[in-house]
Amino acid sequence: MIVVYALVLAMLTTAGLLALWRLLQGPTTLDRIAALDVFMVLIVAAAAVYAAYYVDGSNVPLLAAVALIALVGTATAARLVERGERHR
């Protein structure tokens, strides 16, 4: 089972590096917002893998809070970008 956890963390790390690359290279603000959203989802997934590996359910409220903050932040940022493009 340790091999599965290692593979999952390796895939999450690869996805995190790709999201970080898109965050730094993204030509538009919406690309950067999407990359931040993906990065937050990856953080939640990594914390869930940690909780599963150590059979520790105390992190579940933390996972829910981070996911909610990511959702609200992404929706707010997308709305602000949309308003900014309407004024051009």
Task: Please explain how this structure is put together.
The chain has 88 residues and is mainly α. The protein has one domain (2-86). The chain is built from three helices and no strands. α1 (2-25) runs antiparallel to α2 and α2 packs antiparallel against α3. The longest helix is centred in the C-terminal third of the chain and has 27 residues, at 60-86. The chain starts with a helix and ends with a helix. The mean pLDDT is 89. The chain crosses the membrane at residues 6-24, 36-55, 61-81. It is found in: Cell membrane.
Short structural description:
Belongs to the CPA3 antiporters (TC 2.A.63) subunit F family. By secondary structure, the protein is mainly α.
Oligomer: single chain
Report the portion of residues in β strands: under 5%
Number of helices: 3
Number of strands: 0
Mean pLDDT: 89
Q: State the share of residues found in helices, binned by percent.
A: over 70%
CA-CA gap between termini: 54 Å
